[in-house]
Amino acid sequence: MNVRTLCLGVLSTGEASGYEIKKDIEEGLFSHFIEASFGSIYPALTQLAGEGLVTVRAEEQSGKPDKKVYAITEAGRVALAKSIAVTPARDKYKSEFLFQMLLQQYINRDVMIAAVDKQLADLNQDLARIAECRCSEQPHAGARFVADYGEAVLTAAVNVLKEKKAELLRPATAQAAE
Predict the structure, then answer these.
(1) Are the CB atoms for 35 and 25 separated by under 8 Å?
(2) Which of 71, 78, 137, 176 could form a disulfide with 15 if both were Cys (CB 3.0 to 4.6 A apart)?
(3) Which residues have C-beta within 8 Å of that of residue 96, sequence separation ≥ 6?
(4) Please, which residues bridge with residue 61 across strands?
């Protein structure tokens, strides 16, 4: 997926400024897909507008420069549908936490426990955000699918981390006996 498609996806849910698109990509409904910087979002929006896939209008702001607000066009919806009607690439998962756990022989037990605790807190925060979204909105089928999938993956990760933390907390004599 590219930034153009991501912008069209965000705009398919309603009009937005470049800043609002960036915020939705970082913290909102679209935060689980790909990362995009302002340096890639604004050129993509300019290109999409030039192709007639989005419209742009200036919105007056008190004491500030006008804000550009983008909206997807019907041609943009067609382009979005075409862009996503493909078999997706394999997911890429990158994790500093897993890197640290891979090389755990170089860190002490307390550092590992702290890393596991932080990862658990982060995962639980993500699960709470999913639950909050479920309560605050009447999501469409696609949003429910993504929430169910995310909740299943995160819950499994939490369960594994709880098991691994319990192993770390066992006395060294019990671990040596295994």
Answers:
(1) yes
(2) 71
(3) none
(4) 64
pLDDT tens digit at each of 178 positions of the chain: 789 999 999 999 899 999 999 988 887 777 777 788 888 999 999 999 999 999 999 989 888 889 999 999 999 999 999 999 999 888 888 899 999 999 999 999 999 999 999 999 999 998 988 888 776 665 678 888 888 898 999 999 999 999 999 999 987 655 555 5
- Class of the CATH domain delimited by 3-84: mainly alpha
Residues 121, 137, 68, CA angle at the centre, nearest 5°? 95
Question: What phi and psi, each to the nearest 5 degrees, are found at residue 18?
Answer: -60, -40
Residues 6+ apart with CB under 8 A from 59: 17, 66, 67, 68, 69
